[in-house]
Amino acid sequence: MLKLLTESLAPGVIVVQLDGRLDMAGSMEIEEELLAVVTSNTMVVIDLAGVTFLASMGLRCLILAAKTVQSRSGQLALARPQPLVAEVLRASGADSLITVTTDIDSAARAVMA
Question: What are the chain's domains?
Fold first, then answer.
């Protein structure tokens, strides 16, 4: 089961914390809620520190979220991916579409820029 929690980091900046596996089942669990968050915010940080596995459906979910924010002239960044998740982001080329940082503060600066 994938968990999604949100918190405000700074005025206008929302952090989405994901915890669990971002596979097909996990993506289906959180996609609607994640899209609701990114539709109503223009500066979004997704904290991947708790994500232990990232599959193609999870990548699709993250890219869709980023494109949704960008279509509203906003920014989305991914923060703190575990090594295996970071490797999937690199190997898939998703890190060229979405900013990936090693900490929350860098991600927040990226979305506020």
Answer: 3-112 (3.30.750.24)
